[in-house]
C-alpha cells in the first residue's frame, strides 16, 4: 500500500506549495530561497499515513485556515530523523533534536522552525483509531531519541518505509498494527496499549479480503491467515470473540450475495452457485435453506412474484 509518488528537488516556492497541499497543510516559509532544496513523500499504511520531509532551513505554521483545510482529525507522532527544530503547540515549545519524538494533534494550531537542514518523519493516526483502543495520545510530551522505545519506533519506520509500495493488504494491516503499538509504546509508555484493542482492524481487513474472493470455492482459513500474517488460531479468535466462526461468516457472506442477486437479477441458481463459491446447486440449496428456510427458487418466487 502506498500513496502519491515521492517528490524531490523542490525549490523554495515548490516546497511551500507542496506543504500547503499535504494531508495536514502547513503554511511554509523559506527565508533564504537561494540553493534551497526539499523532498517529500506520503505513504499509506492501511488507515495510517507516513509523511517524510527533508529540506534546508524553513519554518511552518498551521493556523485556523490550515486546520480547517486538513484531511480529517489526527494525532501525529513526529520524529526528527536528522537536524533539529523548535516545535510549538498549545502554548508550549520544545527543541527536538535528531532521534527525538513528540505527539501533536491536527485540530489545534501549531508551528515549527528549523534553522538548518532537517529531516522529519510523521505518522498520522486518525483520532477515532486511538479513541477506539481506549485513550488518545497525550500531546506535547517530547521523548528523547536515546529512549529504547523511541529508537525501536524509528528503526521500524526506517525498515518499513521502502517496503510500503509492495505490501499486500493483509501484511499492510499487520504492519499498521505493529506501527500503532510501537508508536504508543514510544510516546505513551506508562499506559500500555491492549493488543486486543487492535482486533477490530484485523477483523475488518480479513472481511475485506473475503469480500474480494467470495467466488472462489477453494478459499480457506489457511490462506486467509497466511495473507494476514497471523496463525489460524489467532484468525479464529477474531471471529469467536463475537460468537462467530470463520466458516460461518464466509457462508453468510456468500448466501447474502446470492440473496441480493435473486432479488435483483435474472441469473439461474446454478449460475449463482458457481459465481459465489458454492460447489454445486445442491450445496447452495442446503446453505440457503439453512438461513432463509426455503430454497433459492422458492425465495425468488415469493419475493418477485
UniProtKB/TrEMBL annotation:
Residues 204-302 form the HTH araC/xylS-type domain. The keyword Secreted does not apply. PROSITE patterns: HTH_ARAC_FAMILY_1, HTH_ARAC_FAMILY_2. InterPro entries: AraC-bd_2, AraC_XylS_family_regulators, Homeodomain-like_sf, HTH_AraC, HTH_AraC-typ_CS. Coiled coil: none annotated. GO terms for molecular function: DNA-binding transcription factor activity; sequence-specific DNA binding. SUPFAM superfamilies: Homeodomain-like. The keyword Transcription regulation applies. It comes from the Bacteria. SMART domains: HTH_ARAC (SM00342). PANTHER family: ARAC SUBFAMILY (PTHR46796:SF6), HTH-TYPE TRANSCRIPTIONAL ACTIVATOR RHAS-RELATED (PTHR46796). This is Transcriptional regulator, AraC family. It comes from Actinosynnema mirum (strain ATCC 29888 / DSM 43827 / JCM 3225 / NBRC 14064 / NCIMB 13271 / NRRL B-12336 / IMRU 3971 / 101). The lineage of its organism: Bacteria, Bacillati, Actinomycetota, Actinomycetes, Pseudonocardiales.
Amino acid at each position: 500500500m502506498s500513496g502519491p509518488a515521492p517528490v524531490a528537488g523542490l525549490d523554495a516556492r515548490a516546497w511551500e506549495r507542496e506543504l500547503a497541499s499535504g494531508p495536514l497543510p502547513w503554511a511554509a516559509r523559506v527565508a533564504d530561497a537561494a540553493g534551497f532544496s526539499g523532498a517529500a513523500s506520503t505513504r499509506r499504511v492501511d488507515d495510517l499515513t507516513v509523511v517524510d520531509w527533508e529540506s534546508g532551513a524553513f519554518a511552518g505554521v498551521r493556523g485556523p485556515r490550515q486546520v480547517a483545510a486538513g484531511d480529517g482529525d489526527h494525532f501525529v507522532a513526529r520524529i526528527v530523523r536528522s537536524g533539529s527544530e523548535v516545535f510549538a503547540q498549545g502554548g508550549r515549545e520544545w527543541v527536538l533534536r535528531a532521534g527525538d519524538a513528540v505527539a501533536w494533534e491536527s485540530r489545534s494550531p501549531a508551528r515549527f522552525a528549523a534553522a538548518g537542514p532537517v529531516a522529519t518523519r510523521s505518522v498520522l493516526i486518525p483520532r477515532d483509531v486511538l479513541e477506539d483502543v481506549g485513550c488518545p495520545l497525550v500531546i506535547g510530551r517530547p521523548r528523547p531519541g536515546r529512549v529504547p522505545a523511541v529508537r525501536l519506533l524509528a528503526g521500524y519506520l526506517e525498515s518499513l518505509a521502502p517496503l510500503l509500495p509492495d505490501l499486500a493488504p493483509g501484511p499492510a494491516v499487520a504492519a499498521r498494527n505493529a506501527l500503532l503499538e510501537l508508536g504508543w509504546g514510544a510516546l505513551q509508555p506508562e499506559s500500555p496499549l491492549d493488543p486486543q484493542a487492535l482486533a477490530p482492524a484485523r477483523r475488518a481487513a480479513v472481511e475485506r479480503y473475503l469480500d474480494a474472493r467470495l467466488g472462489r470455492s477453494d478459499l480457506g482459513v489457511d490462506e486467509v491467515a497466511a495473507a494476514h500474517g497471523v496463525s489460524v488460531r489467532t484468525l479464529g479468535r477474531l471471529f469467536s470473540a463475537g460468537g462467530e466462526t470463520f466458516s460461518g461468516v464466509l457462508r453468510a457472506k456468500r448466501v447474502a450475495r446470492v440473496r441480493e442477486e435473486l432479488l435483483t437479477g435474472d441469473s439461474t441458481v446454478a449460475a449463482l452457485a458457481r459465481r459465489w463459491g458454492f460447489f454445486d446447486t445442491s450445496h447452495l440449496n442446503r446453505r440457503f435453506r439453512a438461513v432463509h428456510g426455503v430454497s433459492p427458487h422458492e425465495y425468488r418466487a415469493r419475493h418477485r412474484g
